[in-house]
Every structure is written in structure tokens, then in C-alpha cells.
Amino acid sequence: MGANGKVRRVLATMVKVARAVRDGFPLTAKGVLLAAGSALALWRYGLKQVDLLLLVVGAVGLSLAAISLLVVGPAALGIALGLRKPKEGEPVILTTGIATRTGFTVRNFWFVPLLTVEWQWETPDAEVRTDKEAGRRREWIRPNRRALLQEVIRRFVVRDAWGLAEVTFRRREPRNVRIVPSVGHLRNVPVVRALAGGDDFYDPLGAPQGDRADMRAYGPGDPVRLILWKVYAKSRNLVVRTPERARSPMQKTVAYVVAGPGDEPAAGAARAAVINGSLGVSWRLGADGCDVDATTADAAEELFARSGNVAPDDGGRGLDAFFARVAAENGKGSARAVLFVPPRSGPWIQRVVAAARAQAQAAGGKPSVEILVCTDGVVNELPRKWWEKLLVAAPPMDGARAAQKELMNVTSALAAARVPTALVDRAAGRVYTDAFRRMAPKDLQPSQADERKALKAASGAKKSEQTEAA
Fold first, then answer.
1. DSSP type of residue 210
2. Strand 100-107 to 136-143 pairing
3. Which of 195, 263, 365, 395 is geometrically suited to a Cys-Cys bond with 342, CB 3.0 to 4.6 A?
């Protein structure tokens, strides 16, 4: 292990040195070929063999390379010296997907012909566009991922219009940057159905749960005997009876944001639930990468930004510690948990399923966890033929969107937890409570035999009630 670590460090150092040499070398591959070919044509054929045509071609080629160096070199040196010791910028709060002016400006070299100056943010992940005002270029930033950082790393590229010369350098700017996820079209959508608040203590002479008078959408793992078949016959939607609160006990809502591939919609949906009050009056919010939970809106904003620093493979690692903190404060099974998860597969699925099963055991076998799979739309990918796979590359998938096939795989994996699951579309601003019932595996859906058995039991119970009444 020690030898392998040393080899990796040496390779990383070599790559870093090679990148630094490449960024500082003023000529591109095109410029090197042009300069070498022009020098060969000028010296060997133009001067030695007195070939006037190649003499002119070589002179013109070397002149173009020299002009490119004279244009790019001084401009890059001037910009680099001007940004050598950047002052600490003012703190900035950004929202993913929304362009915002940061206050950073660079001198506009309008008087230098054939010059192009571009820069981008390497950390955090964001898109940069600029406009011109008073002889300077102003920076507008459009973040792609939430983050909480104390510095910004910019990568500047100074090149000529022909692409013969190019100089690249990086600059760090000390600045507190908070990037929060966008809520999309979920600002006024009740993402989470909050529990009705009541007394702190229910009636000690009665159970906190009464008759099964309320109803909700059917989820994988619900008993078939609780399905309301009359409602199914009218609306073709499966709903089940749920216990009605006898005294409306106070039950705290806790939520958790799971990191993973394409987790921006999950963080945005959780932020929308905090903003529009869907979590209720008393709530607690946790996220991967955060050891301290949030109980206020201001603390939740920082938590959302900090969770963006977590690697996708580490999603769900903080669930056990979060539930331990909740149990220490409220007791086991006394809080309703809502998990906001990404729409794409990853190591987070196994951790979420294990945590949901553990919570069900702590609550006496009753599901006390709800899962909201959040996405920015579902892409229905058509099957590609073999010759299309060989000749045409597949278009890259947007990290915030999910393919229908991959979403079905996520559904099948989450169905093992046997907890209520719903789909949240941030782009459309809708919550689909029955989407996963249709995509759930066949062994978790009620079969026709189960439906006939449930109908027979219901008719028998109705006859016995009529007999007792008579």
C-alpha cells in the first residue's frame, strides 16, 4: 500500500507539472505545426533552393505565428499581473440555474485586435457569461450545483482568433460563496403532506390512533385488506385506509436530503418544503455531509449549500447518525421521516433501504419513513439498434433528469424497504403519488387472486354486519 501510494503521488506530480508546462507554453499544437512547417519551407526550400513560392509561404506562416505570440503574450501577462493578489470579494449567495452578477470585472482589451479572453469557474461548478460596461467585462455566473465554499478558482484562457497561440492560468479569489438549490416550479406545491398539529400529549385513557377512517394512496408493502375497492372501481386509483388520529397527537416531522447522482432536484424539493411550510410547524432537517441538523429556515439554507460538497458515492452515509439524533430527542418511532432522494442509481439505495427497515422495526413493524424520488422530468429513451450504437454516440444525459428505465430500477430497489414512495417533478411542479405503484415489481403489487380474496372478505364482512343489525 505504501509503494502504491508513492507511485500515485509521483504520477499526480508529473501530471500536474505537465499541465503547468502545457498551460504556460504560448503555442498550441496548430501553432507549433504552422511554425515548424513554415520554418522548414522558408529555410530549406525558400532560401537554399531559391523556391520563391515556398519562400513567401514560409515567411507568411512565421509572420502569423509571431503576430499571435505578440498579441497573446503581453495581454496574458497583463491580466495575470493584475490578478496576482486578488482582494477578498464580498460574500455572494447564488441559486442554481439563475444567472447572477458577482461583481468581478476584467479589463476589456478592445484595442488589441485578434484577441480573445475567456474564463470559467473550476470551483464551484458554474457557467460564466460576460457583458461590457465602462471598458471592463463584467462577470455573470450561472451555478450548476449547490455548494458552500470560501474561495473561487477561475481558469483564464487568452488566445488569438486563429487558434495559434494560447496561454492558460488559474487564479484563486478568497470569497464566501453560498449556492442554494433552485425550487423550480415547486414553490407553491405542498411537496410533503404535513401532519396536523395537536396537543403535546394524547388522551391517556385511549389509543392515539382510532378507526381507519382516513385514506391515502397505495404504496408497495401496504396490506391488501386495507384497500378501498369501491374507490378503485370509480377512479381506478388504489387507496388504502389509514388510522385516524383520535386526539391529534403532536408528531414531529423530520426530513433528510440524500446525496447521489443527480441530487439537485432532491435538494430543491426539500428547500421548497421548507419555504412553503410543507414540513409543518415543528420539523428537523438533515443532509449528507452535515453533522448538525437544521430547525430554522436560515439554518436550512446553509445546510442545503453544504450538502453539495458531498461526493455522489457517499450518499446516505449520514442516515444512521441522523436517526440516532432524532431518537435521542423524540424517542424511537415518534417522528415521521421524509427522505428526499435522487432519481439515479447509486450506493445510496442500499443505505436508504437499510435505514428504512431499521426505522420500521423500531416503530413496531409500521412504516414510519416516506421516500420522495425527485427529478427534473423523465426521459423515455427509445431502444437503439445495434448499428446506431456503433455509429452514433448516445447523447449525454442531464444529471437532473432520469431515464424511465433507470427510474424503474430505482423503484425496484426502493420497493424492498416497503415504505410509501412518491415521485416529485421539480420542472413540472407536480407530485405523483401513484407513479411508483405502476412501476413497482410484480411481486409487490396486488395480484388478481388477492383482489378476489379481498372482495370476498369484504362481502362476507358486510353480510355479517347486516345479520347482526337484523
1. -
2. antiparallel
3. 263
